[in-house]
Structure formats: structure tokens, C-alpha cells
Protein 1
Amino acid sequence: MPAHETDGLWVRCDGCGKLVFKRELEKTSFLCPACGHHFRMGAPQRLALLADEGSFTPFPPLVSANPLGFPGYEERIRQAQEQTGLDDAALVGRAAIGGSSCILAIIDFSFMGGSMGSVVGEQLVRAFEKAAAERLPVVAVSGGGGGARMQEGIFSLMQMAKTAQAVGRHSREGLLFVSILTHPTMGGVYASFASLGDIILAEPGALIGFAGPRIVEEATRQKLPEGFQTAEYALEHGMIDAIVPRPQVAQCVGRLLLWHR
Amino acid sequence: MPAHETDGLWVRCDGCGKLVFKRELEKTSFLCPACGHHFRMGAPQRLALLADEGSFTPFPPLVSANPLGFPGYEERIRQAQEQTGLDDAALVGRAAIGGSSCILAIIDFSFMGGSMGSVVGEQLVRAFEKAAAERLPVVAVSGGGGGARMQEGIFSLMQMAKTAQAVGRHSREGLLFVSILTHPTMGGVYASFASLGDIILAEPGALIGFAGPRIVEEATRQKLPEGFQTAEYALEHGMIDAIVPRPQVAQCVGRLLLWHR
Amino acid sequence: MQPFEWEKPLLELEERISELKQFCARSKLDFSEEIASLERRASTLRREIYASLTPYQRVLMARHPKRPTTLDYIRMVFDDFLEMHGDRTFGDDAAIVGGIALFEGQPVTVVGPQKGRDTRENIARNFGLPHPEGYRKALRLMRQAEKFGRPVITFIDLVGAHPGVEAEERGQGLVIAECIEAMSFLRTPIIAVITGEGGSGGALALGVADRILMLENAWYSVISPEMCASILWRDSSRAAEAAELLRLTPTDLLKYGIIDDVITEPLGGAHRDQAFTGRQVKAFLRRYLAVLKKTKVERLVEERLARFRRIGQFHEVKLAEI
Amino acid sequence: MQPFEWEKPLLELEERISELKQFCARSKLDFSEEIASLERRASTLRREIYASLTPYQRVLMARHPKRPTTLDYIRMVFDDFLEMHGDRTFGDDAAIVGGIALFEGQPVTVVGPQKGRDTRENIARNFGLPHPEGYRKALRLMRQAEKFGRPVITFIDLVGAHPGVEAEERGQGLVIAECIEAMSFLRTPIIAVITGEGGSGGALALGVADRILMLENAWYSVISPEMCASILWRDSSRAAEAAELLRLTPTDLLKYGIIDDVITEPLGGAHRDQAFTGRQVKAFLRRYLAVLKKTKVERLVEERLARFRRIGQFHEVKLAEI
Ligand SMILES: [Zn+2]
Ligand SMILES: [Zn+2]
């Protein structure tokens, strides 16, 4: 459930309905001080939370083309870049977590819903290729709302194959991929690299699935079950290894990396 | 549903409840002339139905020991041998089906319920080993009521591992195993080699499962669903490839062997 | 069944010709010259109409209820077929069919979604929308093909993977990823034929192949034009505009290198002459199977991976620019 | 909780001693000699009772509700543990737990059925009776261990696989076969520890290993003594007799070469001193892991297969005899 902003300074919590001071959230790793609800967080904040301080070296940036000549796409990209300070929805680089080296990829929802166009796909593929070449594990934090970047049409769809194959090549080298699903991980992002982790962790309450809940509701004309497509629901249905609350994610991933050195 | 004999000459059909003349059954491959119900049939009759005439060369026979010193087991074996004319519950040898060579193994329910003791296990393992050595496919017809031969205790249990491993070694040579499940294939026979076929066929109405229906009913204290554990039920639940009526089994297996030469 | 709007002038003309012929036969009068002239005009009109179809008209053609389904192609293209059921885990999905077939004497594994030909069948087949167990069945059969070195042929015609509660519960997203990954590394030749609709991840899950062929009036896209329009303009009736933007036709996809060849259909669409369409598909499969069979499987997999690795358009940014 | 019948004289004596000690403390009188004598007698009695346990008494010990469970062993034997859930197909079975654990600094994969410690827990854990998704979870974790070359340790304590409608529907028999087959060829060391009940195919599905260890008061059989009695004599109350016939004790199984070693328990059973039992299991694991780690994985698999290949007793029949 996305947090609806009420004005610039306050935001309403989807967990408890209370208004939370935005500046406060930054101090709590975007956890609601009242109920612990996990708000979405940006890639830079996530990086700070997850990677050892000063350990991150980003990959060279890539910038989107407009392969279909989709009207307004360039403008849309430019806006998103300005709003987020990111080149595209993936922040990828080399990092250390709990003292162990890895390649870290973070999908940022705030950049066009974390959708996977050519840039995100290529960055992820480079992440797995680099990791394979250096025999490093990959840690990916996914939050891709619908997965597809419509404006790149078929090119967006093909990124699913491209990234899944990159995972496959990395995996066949006997290397570890820890996939962390954050709110929301849906569609093409979920149905490709994100669900191919050796170990799949999720944050509490994160929406995880293929078809969005509204689409399922419309298609089936039935009321969705309580907690449908939440991380808790995915755990119950056998789709993820564990739910890890945000404050423990870095420590948990650190242990996993250490155990797979 | 086993056919309850009413006297020496007639037998009541579990499909339609009519009395069927036993001699008649032998002419119809043990199909009820009235409703087509598949009666159980012995290994020699099954062999005649399935293998090309004159193509069968049996493996050297093995005879059961009494590894646990189980009281009365030798006597039980001797009786079964006399009643069935078989050495034990498995008839194994080299055969041709539709002109293609294979190793054929048939479990006969009438020998102690088609249960798997050391002899059945060893014969099956030899079947897969011989097939692997000569690069031949294996066709197995299973009808093991409860699977386990209680009188051999742990030795019977271990035949599950032994036969499953023989399938695995044969399979890793890239060779074909067609498993045909006939009424009834349950317990340890089903939970080992019989369900490891590349292709799993079943006869209509055959009972297929792990725990027997009475055990499930007692354990769960609920009424069993209509058609529970029948071949049709297994097909619906994704556990078998196809249901093949008895008159078409030889032709179907023949095609499969031809396609895998 | 309703004809398409754009076909109406042609259908009317064809009817007129047919009437005239019948009149000739009854009246013993000779209108052969007039008939010949009308037929020439019909032929021109037909070519004009179908040469200038818009992308969305092709989308509608791809959805024509009389369009051949996977089982039709299996019947028309292969000499023998044994359907195999089940995922050995949960169930047997009627929305996906598969099994071993004989292609000119050679065993191949065939898999594809199956739409129904009428309402009753469509309900039984869930309109060709697969559940996870359908994809798992496909995966199982493809792994079986790999074991025995059989080529895999997939037919693709589905608007997407089923969006439902149970499908989500049983891992729709996960199983699509697994299919994509497994096909990518499958050590046997794979040909995918997009015969009708190629909708999103549900189609890609059967579409990772060494050769990807597409019928003339099929479409393949990350999103259906209706849903695209509904996201862009909150108005799904503007699907025709969205179809233009999405570049979902075989011509565009061939240009982008997404597909390898376009299988021409009879004028008016595959449903106008199923047998012709079947022969076409068979001819293309024959040609490409022959090529693939000459290639070592290691090389096939390498090239399959390289093919997808290349797809994507972006700019490298020199650090000075930032 | 009820003491076993055969323990009653001992428990009475132990109580007497405890009372006497308390009386000493209160009264400041010295009974130390008497107490020492009584304790010697108790010790003798304890040895006598537990040395002469019948097979069925051991079966009952194996079912003692306070006997350590898989999670108890995980807590006692390993330094760290991350539980991992789900079969990535259908569900997460609480009757089987598994994950990565640290054994003296070395990561291992641990899997085992989990019984509850009370009624509420037992209902949640389905009395440690796994469904197919439990076995599929185990399989997934074992394959993961293989990928990373981690040893696998399974704890076995279940009376059987769950006999239920849904379990049958989702392929209980098939998944047991898959587990057996997969473990047989798994390219990583495997140690199985039968800690309590080893019932039938449901136990074997976790029991194909390079070393099979068994606690002193555990049992392992193709069929439970109760069900055996009920088949033989239509009287499950004659289970004690059946237990004799089935040769299900560690001593018998060691003699037959089915298991490799017996882990001694504290007198009176594992539940009498969980910490001691944990240390015992840890010591045995340490010893056998060290041996297995020295062996190449190809050789491990070969020997694992050879081990089971040998099991079985029968007579070859010379053709002249027939
Ligand atoms: Zn809150
Ligand atoms: Zn009948």
C-alpha cells in the first residue's frame, strides 16, 4: 500500500493511519514510529542501510534511449532523473555487506515505478556478469511496481529474459544470489531475476506477485483474500525463504554472505 | 477395487456389479464384457498382451530368503509360488514391444499383493542395470498393493532406495523408462521406481497412491472424495501423463519405444 | 460470427459474385466476362484491404475465434501426437497442451497454450490463460525433450498468464521466471511460433528460443494495447492508438531483431484457409529445424543467450558528462 | 506426564532418595551412608531396567513427548541457524523445518521433521507428519546445499508421511520417490540422524545418506509395530510382539548394515538429559563430518549408491533346480 502524501511535511501511514513527520521517517529507516510499517525507501537510503559505510562503487551510468520512439518518453525520463537524482531505476555497484564483498543492485520505485527498461536490464546483467567474473555474490533489492516499462514495449519485455539469463549464468558458476523483495515487487521484475534468488527474503508487508491486485480483482470479480500478495502471504504459500524486518536485513544478508564465502 | 470371487467359475465385476464368467475374462484381456472394467491380470497374461510374441527371455530366477527370520515367511512364499507359478512378485526379462527391444518388468499382485521384498527389488535393479548396459529402455508394469513386504521389514524398505537409484542411474544415461501403473499401485512401489518414469501411463480405474484409502479415511475421519486415488484422479491432479485403456497399451508403448530409439 | 468492419466491402462484393455465379448456373446465361472482371476487382480490393491493415486490426485478426489453435496446428503439422498431462506437482492445466509429436518422422516435443473454439471449450480451457501448473507442465516436457535430445516447438497464443488468486498463490511470477531461465539453457533446439497473441511475460515464458517465428497477423508485446491505453489515457477504447505506439506487429519486431521470420497467412487471415496456414507453418518449421539440427547444442545455447543479451537500447554516459 | 510402567520402581526409589536428602537437610541428621547405598541400588536398578528394554519399550521411548525435537537439536548442536521456508511451488510445511546452520564454524544445511512439544504445537506442526510441500522444501534445500557444496544433515523423527486426502492429491508418493532419488545422487556429503521414529517411506525420504546414525532409543522400520500387528493379527494392541518381529532397534539395524553407528543416550532416554544428548549428537556429527569431508564427492556418491545396492537377501537359483 503506497503511502499517500498529505502535504509536503507529513505522510499518512498505511499501517496505522497516523500522520508521520517525514523528517522523522528518515531517521527510522522509513519505519513508522507508531506501528513499524515499512514505508518505501529510495535507493540511496537503502544503500546506506545495507552496505558497509564507504564500500560502494557504482557502475558507470547508462541513460535510456527511446527505442520505439514513444511520444513523451524522453521527457518522462528527464523528469524522473530530476526528481530522484538517479540515472534510471537501478542503482548498481560493488559493495561490502557485513565485511563481505558483493555486487549490489537496488531498484528504486520512485523512478517510474521501478520499471525495467533497457537501462535497468542492462545494469542488472552487468551486475551478474561482473559478479561472475570476480566470483562474487549478488544482492538485489527489488521494488518494481509493475515490472514493465511500457514505453519501451517489447524491449522492456525482453529484459526479463536477459536478466533471468544473467542470473542463470552466474548461478551455474556456483555463486550466490540473495534476492530481497521490497514493497512492491510485481510483474516483470518479479517474474524474472527477482524470483530466481538462491535465497529470497522479503520485508514485512511488501506486495509481491505477478498480476497486480486490481487486475486480479477485475479479472476474477471476487473479493481478494485478506493479506493477498503480501510478503506474509508469499511466505505461507511457499514462495519466499523468510521475512526479515528492515532493521535486521543488513545483518541477515551479512551472515548469508559470510556463510557463502 | 479388488474383484471378489463369488465361486470358482464366476466373478463379480466391481465396475457394473454383474457376474462375469472367468473363462470369458481370459479372452477379453480381463476387461468386463459388460462395462469395460479393468480386472487385475497376472504377469504372464500381461506379458502376452504387451510383448511381441516369442520375444521374451526372462532373467534367471531369484528366490526369497528370510532375512529377519520372520515366522511363517518361507511357508507364505512357498504357497504364493504354488498358487501363481511365479518365483516372486516380479517377472523380469528382455522383450520386444511393437518391434522395439526393451527390458520389461511386471509386478504381479497375486504374489503377496505385489509387495517388494529383496527379490523384487533385486530383479528390478538388475532390469535397469541390464538396460543401462545395453542402452535399452525399461518398461515396468506395477501393481503392488501396499508396496512393502512386511516380513522383510527394513530390507523391504531399503528396496525403495535401491530401485529408485537404479532408475536414476539408467536415466542419467539418457535412457527411457515407461512406467505403467495398474490396479493397484500403492505404498512403497508407488513411492519409488514406479513414479520415476519419464512417462507414466495408467490403466483406467487403477488405484494409485501412497497411503491406502482405508488408512487415509481412518487418519482423517473424513469421507474420501469421489474417485479418490483412481487413475482419473491422478491425471486430474497432474501425477500421470495419460490414461491408456488396456487394449491400447501395447500399441502406445510401442510408439513411445519407437520414438526413443 | 461478426465480420470485421474493414472486411465488409470485400465480403459484400464476394457475396455479389457468388450470387451472380448462381444466377448464371440457373439461367444458362453467360456472364463470365462480368464475373471475371468482378473477381479481379475483388482481388485488388482484398490486397488493398489486407496490405494496409493497422496494427490494431492485426490484433483483432489475431483474436479471431476461428483462428487455428495449438491443437489445430498439431493436427495439421505433425503425423502423430501423444498428449502428455500434468506437472507432477499439483494439477493438469487444460490451458496448456503438450506432448511428443512426429514431424516428418522425427520426434519433437510440442507445447502451447490452448484456446477454446466455443464458449464451453473456452471455459474448460480458461480462454488459454495458463495457471502455474500449466507452465510447470511445459517445463517438465521441455526438460524431458532435453534429456532425449528432441527439438522443442512451442506455439504461442495467449493474452497473458491467468491473473487470479490461485494462480498468484501457486507462484505465477516465479514459474514464469523459471520457464524463461530453463528455456534459456535448455540443451536442445527450440523454435517458438507466435501464432496469435503474444501477451507479456506469459508469452515470453514459452518464447525463449533459437528461432522465433511469427504469423503475419499475430502480435507480441509487453502489454496488451487495451491495458496500455487504459494506463496512458485511462481509456481502454483507445487501444488502436496504443497498438500503434507499442510496435507489436511482426514487421516491427523483425526490424528490431526480436523475431527471425514472418509466416505469411492467406489473404484475410489464417482462419480463411486453415489448411494453407498449416502448410505454411510446416514449411517454415521444416526449414528452421533443418538449420538448427546442423548446429551443435553447445553453440545453440551460446547463441540463444547472446541473442537476448544484445537486446536493449541505451546510451553509455561518459563520466565527464555527469 | 505419565511415567512408563517399567520405570515406576526406579522413579519410586529416586523419589525416596530425594525425600531422604530433604529430611537430612531439615533435620541436620546424617544419613549419608544410607543415601549412598540407596543411590548405588538406584544406579544398578537403572542399568538393569534400561539394559533390558524390549524393542517396543524403545519404540515408546522414541515417542516420549519430552524427547528432543529437530529444533532442539538445531539449538543444541549448531552455533547459528537461519530457517528457510517454502517449496517455491505450493506452500510451507510446518511439519518439516530446514535451513542453513553453522556447525563449529562450517555452514551446513539442516533438514528434519518437527513434532510439537504440546497439543497446540502438535496441531500446528501436524504431529511432524509432512505433506508433499514439506518434502519439496527439503529437496529444495538439499539441492541448494549441493550447489554450494555444503554438507547436509537430516534429523529423522516421524511416524510416517501424512496420510491425507490433500497429501495424496499433491503427490505424496511421487515426492517421496523424488527425494530418495535426489538424495542418492546429491553431490555433497549427507549424514542422517534418526533421533526418534523412523517410519517407512516418509523417513527414508530423508534417510538416504553417506552415514546413517541412530539414537539408542530410536526405531526404524518399513511399518509401525501397531500397523504390523493390525495386519498380522487384526489387533494393534499386540504391537509389542510385532516390534520384536520387525527388528527395528539400532542394534539389529547396525548388525544388518542398515545404519552405521548408534548414539548412546543418557540412561532413561534422551529426554532425561537433553543437553547430554545434544553433546552426544554433536560429537558424532563432528567425527563423521570430518571423515566425509576428506572424501571426494564423486566417491561419496559412488559409495552411497553401492551401499544401498548391496541391501537385500535372496537366493540365486540355478536353472537346473527349477
Ligand atoms: Zn504506522
Ligand atoms: Zn463390469
Protein 2
Amino acid sequence: MAEAVDVATDEVQVRTVGPVRLELPPDPSLSRVARLAASGVASLTGFNVDEIDDIKVAVSEVMVALIEHGADCTIAVEFDVSGGSFTVRGTTVIDDFDVNHPDLVLCRTVLSAVCSDHGIDLNDGRAVIWASVEQSRG
Amino acid sequence: MAEAVDVATDEVQVRTVGPVRLELPPDPSLSRVARLAASGVASLTGFNVDEIDDIKVAVSEVMVALIEHGADCTIAVEFDVSGGSFTVRGTTVIDDFDVNHPDLVLCRTVLSAVCSDHGIDLNDGRAVIWASVEQSRG
Amino acid sequence: MTEPNSIDSLSATVSRDGVIVIAGDIDMAGGPILELAIAEREAQLAADGADHEPSPGDVVLDMAGVFFIDSSGLRSLLSATRRAGERGGKVVLRSVGPEVTRLLEITGTLDHFDIESQRG
Amino acid sequence: MTEPNSIDSLSATVSRDGVIVIAGDIDMAGGPILELAIAEREAQLAADGADHEPSPGDVVLDMAGVFFIDSSGLRSLLSATRRAGERGGKVVLRSVGPEVTRLLEITGTLDHFDIESQRG
Ligand SMILES: Nc1ncnc2c1ncn2[C@@H]1O[C@H](COP(=O)(O)OP(=O)(O)O)[C@@H](O)[C@H]1O
Ligand SMILES: Nc1ncnc2c1ncn2[C@@H]1O[C@H](COP(=O)(O)OP(=O)(O)O)[C@@H](O)[C@H]1O
């Protein structure tokens, strides 16, 4: 079981938390619930206010991509903190997913700026979108 | 798909949202994340501040019962709003669950006071705990 | 039927002086609500013949109550800038917070807007 | 090794005058942190011989920063009241908010505590 564990490193203690998994209907208003849950996970693992702002944007962009471009099925988002990195990973069923759709390009532009890394994978009729925000050491 | 739907009744519009499902490791610090997600769902469905306080307590008591008395396995909590009622339903694997344990009695005393209805079911090595908070009409 | 009990994630109202006052998150849920308010203001401008002082055709948004925006919300703002441009006007942002400024910067859309003031 | 980056859900510190100042949620995560601070204060009282004015043996908790408590947190408080009772002292709650008062009322444990003041 992945309980919270404090791992001592040379510089800081890095807290491991998760996975916290959220499953919700593709309701635009629930994006806020996903952001709230993500903020909670991030704040208890010591991310600072600016980093939490980035995490909220990252989670929201994942929700935008999945809700606006998915096939109107349940959305699953998972939050994981380990090694000083917050990762959100979202997935849903898709019909056809145009990675070059202008809205999705805007979405990825934002993810590129607020995340250290992100990606979109398509397989077996599902889209998986993930994004990571790094914690500052100090 | 259970998208948000506004249903007009004689008195007020009642919003249906959910189910929002959360799966998390049995980490005490994640109780706060469950409360945050529940507050988000409750506030977007029009529960007032006092009702949201009750919902936070109800969710926390469900987490207490499942984390302190469960078998250290993943906790699942689900939030549902329909007919002006917020329901939290939590479940986890249990080894042996003493419903008369004083801590659990205190937990149920609290649930009795903040919820219109609640219950604990045990079967097949799992405990299911649910509690409902009603929305005021006005 | 009384007021619905449900709380929107965003409120956007056209005030008496024509300024759209926004409070809440401009996201997938808030964007469409904001678009309704912008459409209401655009209809006023069209009815007025857009010949008012000091800035004919401008849509002014008071963003003091906005602490979150994502790309879906930005698209609502950008489509207003496109229409404003077509009629020779601008979208003016008043009391903009750092969260909004950041999103405009990283998407390279800051120059689509007229930033009147930052949130104090 | 520097300070851990992780933020606890609750902070509880024994101030110079012996008052335990609490901020955060008294829940499954916060309860144990609060218990450590109470144990620290109880050790001080034992070392002092508990012969101080005005209330020997009392544990005073400043609850101004507490906006949430559940039954697991209440148990942390109740176990302090039991020990206080054993040594002839009390657990005094200062600046208690309505969330805490409500939980004490519904569990019938209000009279286990000495409520000094409500949060303003
Ligand atoms: N990545 C981007 N960078 C800059 N501007 C963009 C970007 N994506 C969209 N826009 C702008 O957003 C505005 C609105 O786009 P669009 O959604 O097509 O408007 P509408 O839906 O009103 O037709 C357009 O002016 C377009 O140029
Ligand atoms: N439902 C209840 N109503 C009133 N007091 C309670 C209730 N449950 C527990 N307590 C009180 O909580 C206090 C602490 O209980 P306990 O957990 O046994 O303490 P400790 O863990 O320190 O031994 C006891 O004084 C007990 O009377």
C-alpha cells in the first residue's frame, strides 16, 4: 500500500503520496473538483503556492482535453507525488482524437509552459494525457 | 452518462451531479483531500456553508471508520448529489470489524447528528459506510 | 419557481456603466457564462451604434474576482477579441491578477488585449 | 538535511506562556501532531510540580486557527481531559470556533472542557 512515506535525501525530505484516483462524469463543472483535490494533494506534499497554481492549470488542461475531445464517457484522473514531482494522468474513451485540433494545440502550449514534461498517448480507443510539475528544492 | 442536469421542481431547481469516485491509499492525511473534493461537489450543487460543514464532517467520519478499522487497503469514496441530497459512500477491505468498538460508536454518534441518514454494511470481507446530508429548500 | 439553489462556478454581470464584472474561475464551466455576458454587452454596443465616448466598441472586463483561468477560458476571451477587432474595438482587462497574466504570456496572447490595470 | 518540504495539515506549538497554539484541521493526521504538543506541555507541568498560578495542571489550547475537527481529533482532546482530570486539572479551550463547539455538543462532551472564549 502506498502510504505517505518520508524519504530522506541529501537536500530535503521528499514525501511520496498517492496514487489518488478520481473518476467523474464528463461534466465541465467537475474540473474545479479535480483542481481542488489536486491542490489538496500538492499542499500536503509541500508544493508552494506558485507550484500549486501550475498544478491547477495542468489538471484543468488535462480535463479540457479529455472532456472536450473525449467520447462523453467517464473521465479518470490520477495524482501521484514522488521524487519531488507531481504527476497528473488522465484517461477517457475517445472516438477520433485530432491531436492537431487548434484547441488541443492551445492546451498543449499551456502544458508545455507550466509542466516540466507532458504527453498524450492514444491506444485502443482511449486517450491518456499526463503532465508533471517539479517541486523546487529549497 | 451522469452529466449535470437541472431538474425543475415546484420549489427549487435541484442539480444532479456525480457519481464522483475517489480511490486513495489509507493515508490519514488524505482525509483532507476527500473533504476538499466533497466540498467542491457540494458547493457547485448549491449546498450552503453549514451544510458543507456537515458534509465535511460526514466524509471525514467515513474516512476515520475505513482507515482506522479497515485492513490497510485502498479506500474508495463516492459522492453523489441527487434529489437535494448529498450522499457519501465509502468502502474498503476489512479483516474483522467490531461495530461496537468505542471509536466507531463515537464516529456513528457524529454521523447520526450531522446526517439525515447513515449506515454501515459488512459483507464479503468489505465494509460499506454511507451517509446523506439533505439540502435545505429555500 | 424560486432561484435555483445551484451555485455557478463563475458570475459575470454587465454593470450599469457597461463594465462586465467577473468573479470565479474562467474554465470549461465558467467560459460559457462569461460568453453570455460578453454577448449581452456586444448587443448593447451594437444598439448604441458604438458611438460612445471614450472608446467606442470596447468590451471592458473587471477581472478583480478572477483567480483562475485555463485554455478553455482563454478561448472565450480570444473570441471576444476577434469580434472586437472586426468592429474596430478592443477587449480591455481591468484589475487583472497574475494567474491570468501568466496564461496570456505563455500562450503569446497578451497583445490581443488592452491591460488597463493589475489587481492591487 | 534541511527542513522537510512537506506541510503538515496541523501545527501545534507550546508558546512561552505554556499555551498550545493550534492551526489546522484536527483530524486523523492532525490529532497525533496535537497529541505531541499536549505531551510536551504535560511534561512541563510535571516538571514544574504543577504548583503554578492561576490554574495548576491546566492545559490551555488556543483554537483560533481550528476550523475543522472530527471524532478522531476529538479523541485526542478527550484523552487529554482524562489525564487532566487524574491530576486535578482541566483542558481549557480558548477562542473556540463553532465547528468545534458543534462537535462537542453532538457528542455530549462539552462539559469535559472548560470553554474560556469563543472565536470572535
Ligand atoms: N494559440 C493561439 N494563439 C493565439 N490566438 C489564438 C490561438 N488559438 C486561438 N486563437 C484566437 O482565438 C480567437 C478565437 O478563436 P475561435 O475559437 O475561432 O473564435 P470563435 O469561436 O469565436 O469563432 C481567434 O482570434 C484566434 O486567432
Ligand atoms: N462517546 C464518548 N463520549 C464521551 N467520552 C468519550 C467517548 N468516547 C471516548 N470518550 C472519552 O475519551 C477519553 C479518552 O479515551 P481513550 O481513547 O480511552 O483515552 P486514551 O487513549 O488516552 O487511553 C476518555 O476519557 C473517554 O471517557
